[in-house]
Predict the structure.
Amino acid sequence: MYSMGTYRLAVIPGDGIGPEVIPESILTLTSLAEMHGGFQFDLQHFDWGTDYYLREGVLMPTDGLATLAQGGFDGILLGPVGDPRVPDHVTLWGLLLPLRQTFDQYINLRPVRLLPGVRSPLAEKHPKDIDIVCIRENTEGEYAGAGGRIHQGTENEVAIQSTIFTRKGTERIMRYAFEYARQSGRKKVTSATKSNSMQYNMVFWDDVFRQVAAEYPDITHEQQLIDSLGARFVSSPESLDVVVASNLFGDILTDLGAAISGSMGLAPSANLNPERRFPSLFQAIHGSAPDIAGKGIANPIASLWSGQLLLDFLGEHEAATLLMGAIEEVLARGQARTPDLGGTTTTHQLGDAIREQMRSMA
Ligand code: ATP
Ligand code: MG
């Protein structure tokens, strides 16, 4: 029994720097709720990930998905999951990809924005013009998991990884991209394609893109081959607005996007089931970063910004705006910076600085 305004969150801190950055998100969301007064969080933690795997042989319990599905959760906060001791594909297929697919989180929303006071490696050319929203298809395409290996270990070995593009799956990602553009006052949608060399799936992708685009005459549309679009992220990111991409292409473009925005430690994501039939999932796009894990120096902003996307999804726009404003202000002032941004501030100190800023702006 919960009163109005109580959001139930599943929290999976994950591996490496996850247990360092996720607590900062929790502290921040909790203090926002206290400051706001109109809502609160009810948190349930799950210790799933690599340690669980090394103990139990699985990344999460066999009824893990059912637990999340039936728990009445409004959202899932997930830290990075991955560890050098376990092959990456085992980790991904043991937790994250089943979550995305089972909960039909078909939108992977990834803002690529250069925040104030942050230096892009492109800084000389583009002082402050990066503001892209990538809409990545998140349940099918190249990561559908269809394929197999035969004659393993012999000289006749064959590996097949098929892509799956359905009309339903392709239409809904395109429509979301155009709706997003319209509702957020953006002007253009660029589709990442490779229809010159992939004559079935990507030609289909282009067809559906054009069909859906025709329903949105107020939004400009264009398509570009993924190879040259990647180059464009570097040479003229200011020319991009909303970018819609398949699972693989979106994955690659958004790491590139994080790099041009100054640090992997800043980039957030939302894995959305827009119809809210299943819980959506919010996660920094970075990995577990074993090289800096345990040192308390990871940048918590990617995780905090992912929490901001959660607030927006919950409809708590006022709190979301306050959090983003505080992040931007602290970065702009430049006093609190983790080592990835050239400073010596710790994870917790940067989190504290942002929370203090929120209080002074509230
Ligand atoms: P995984 O195998 O889980 O993907 P990874 O080592 O590949 O982990 P990534 O997150 O992909 O880690 O990032 C690559 C590098 O970027 C890290 O090794 C780390 O140095 C840096 N990095 C990532 N996230 C952060 C962060 N939050 N703060 C500071 N540096 C980070
Ligand atoms: Mg990685």
Notes: The radius of gyration is 20 Å.
